[in-house]
Design goal:
This protein is α/β, with parallel strands linked by helices. About 35% of the residues lie in helices and about 25% in strands.
């Protein structure tokens, strides 16, 4: 997984050093992740656009806000996730994939934190 540090390696490394909250958009195919200090973008679509991606690329990403204490995953499963027509199956797959990809990213960044899932609806537990 390629980690793209926005606006620069130095800015992200300084945020890590100071334990400043970081924002990350991790592509579901594990090809790349874009990360920045939260105050640089404030929102995942803005982060991606600032880093040269399309604002709609957020649909292809796991979205987290993290620091040394925890990682908050904004659980937003795309309607067409992996072209799986059944919504319950897609939610289950998105959930399982996120639980594999997000810890991998955090480990690459040097973080070993608890993952908290935001926006998780009851429908996920039906799979």
């Amino acid at each position: 997984m390629q980690i793209i540090r926005y606006p620069s390696d130095e800015a992200v490394n300084e945020a890590v050093k100071n334990d400043t909250p970081l924002l990350a958009a991790i592509f579901t195919d594990r090809s790349a992740a874009v990360v920045c200090p939260m105050e640089e973008a404030g929102e995942h679509s803005i982060l991606l656009m600032n880093a040269g991606y399309s604002g709609t690329d957020t649909e292809r990403c796991f979205r987290i806000l993290f620091d040394s204490q925890s990682a908050s995953w904004s659980f937003v499963c795309p309607k067409d996730y992996k072209d799986i027509p059944d919504r319950q199956t897609a939610l289950g797959e998105f959930y399982r994939d996120g639980l594999a990809v997000i810890p991998e990213f955090l480990t690459l960044m040097g973080y070993f934190t608890q993952i908290k899932i935001k926006n998780l609806t009851g429908e996920i537990w039906d799979f």
